[in-house]
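FW: tagging you since you asked about this chain on Friday. Here's the raw sequence from the shared folder, copied in full. Didn't touch anything.
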Amino acid sequence: MKIFFKKNGLLLRRLAFTTLLATLSPCISQSAFANPTIEEIKKTILDDPLFLSKLRDQLSVESLEDDSIRSIIRKYLLENPEIIFEMQEALNIKNAQQIAENQKNQAETIKNSTKNLFYSPDDAVLGNPNGDVTVVEFYDYNCGYCKRSFPGIQALIKTDPELRFVMKDYPILGQDSVQAHLIARAFRKLMPEKYLSLHEKLMTYNGRATEKSVMEIARSLGGDEEKLRTAMQDKALQDPLVNNAEIAYKLGINYTPSYIVGTQVIPGAVTDNDLVAIIKEERKKGK
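HL: got it, structure written out here
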């Protein structure tokens, strides 16, 4: 046995590495064991009950140093570069499966949360309240992408009379955002007829929305600061922010803007044309 290991030490180390790769990827094992010399040695040593212990001792002495392992891996990959493509293909397949699974889970969550997502009385609704297609947007008044998307959303609502647009308060960009959304919600409760004006000013505001800046804008539209601050303490006005965050978490939404159309989650900013196409496809499903 000692003579066998002495003569075939390097080959056995390569075989051990190949065996390790084989446990990780069957496609690698097929190509690695195609060499008949390796196959013969493999059969011989696997028949020996002492093989594993002898091999472990041999490897621990000669080839388990970091530099040796790196050298073996590097040499193997250079001699078998096709492995990289096999790994990439396997990764692509895995990612596609994960995306499909996420979309399935999101669709199920949307179906189970239809009332809270699409018809909550706590959300502002733009466009046609009885429109045939609903778009839900999770937004933050301090989100630059939300602000850049706003003119396109306005134009879309104006050109599509059957579009219903639900605004989900989702202040995830710090305490300033939380306070900004609370003031806006209090303003909508006290002065619903002027809420759209406030919303537009905040979405086009050139600066950070803070408690101070939003309160100034609210006062410029006739809001009473004392009444607004009192309303902000109402738990019924605060709870929807928590509810929206819980739904967003279930849907895997962790940035703004994010949209929901039908059972589809569209994460991140999208172009006006893309959103129009998505709405068009959703409208076809209803016919």
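FW: The mean pLDDT is 82.
HL: agreed, and The longest strand covers residues 133-139.
FW: great, closing this out.
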